[in-house]
Design goal:
The chain is an alpha+beta fold. The chain is about 15% helix and about 25% strand. The chain has a domain of about 120 residues.
């Protein structure tokens, strides 16, 4: 003989409510907060930046083009003679962006591999002299316009490896190899 237990609808609703609210009482902790018991007394030490002098305008002559992505029609370049790695672990370079309409933007920049930050030092004015940027603070690389994300490409694919900058020679080889031939078409897909 089997017994059938009938449970009323209000009792089911009360049971469901009690079970669904139980996780809400779990303790919420700040996992990023430093813990003195593990020897952590503060956040990471701020990076000390090297003194950096702007390069001569003449380094902006020999360009290495690199591939950013299919979503942009701009062309991107890095001046070969401008690549340098500072004692602070920042990769400094002169970049050139050429739009589909032919406009050019040449600038002196830096990427800090350990923190994923970028810095803009100066723009080339009239092809003759550097004009210091108004905003020279370090800022996250992934902030900004997605269609002009060449800095993120440089950071992720060419300049940094495991939070450390690569040698300029290796970076130039990586930039040169960024144009990979693709096979296929839009209907069958690319490989």
């Amino acid at each position: 003989m089997s017994r059938v237990f009938a449970v009323s609808v209000p009792a089911c609703a009360a049971l469901w409510l009690a079970l669904s609210c139980a996780p809400a009482f779990a303790q919420i902790t700040d996992w990023q907060k430093p813990e003195p018991f593990r020897g952590e007394v503060g956040g990471p030490a701020p990076a000390v930046e090297d003194e950096y002098e702007l390069p001569q305008v003449s380094v902006a002559k020999d360009w290495q083009e690199f591939y950013v992505g299919a979503e942009t029609r701009n062309r991107y370049f890095v001046a070969r003679d401008s690549l340098s790695v500072g004692k602070d672990g920042s990769m400094r370079f002169v970049s050139r962006v050429v739009t589909a309409g032919g406009a050019e933007n040449v600038s002196v920049e830096a990427i800090r591999c350990a923190t994923g930050d970028r810095r803009l030092y100066a723009y080339l004015r009239d092809g003759k002299a550097w004009s210091l940027s108004k905003d020279t603070e370090w800022s996250p690389i992934n902030a900004g316009n997605r269609l002009n994300a060449y800095r993120l490409t440089l950071y992720e694919e060419h300049f940094c490896w495991a939070d450390h900058p690569v040698e300029p020679r290796q970076a130039l080889q990586s930039l040169a190899g960024s144009f990979k031939p693709r096979t296929g078409n839009p209907l069958t897909g690319y490989r």
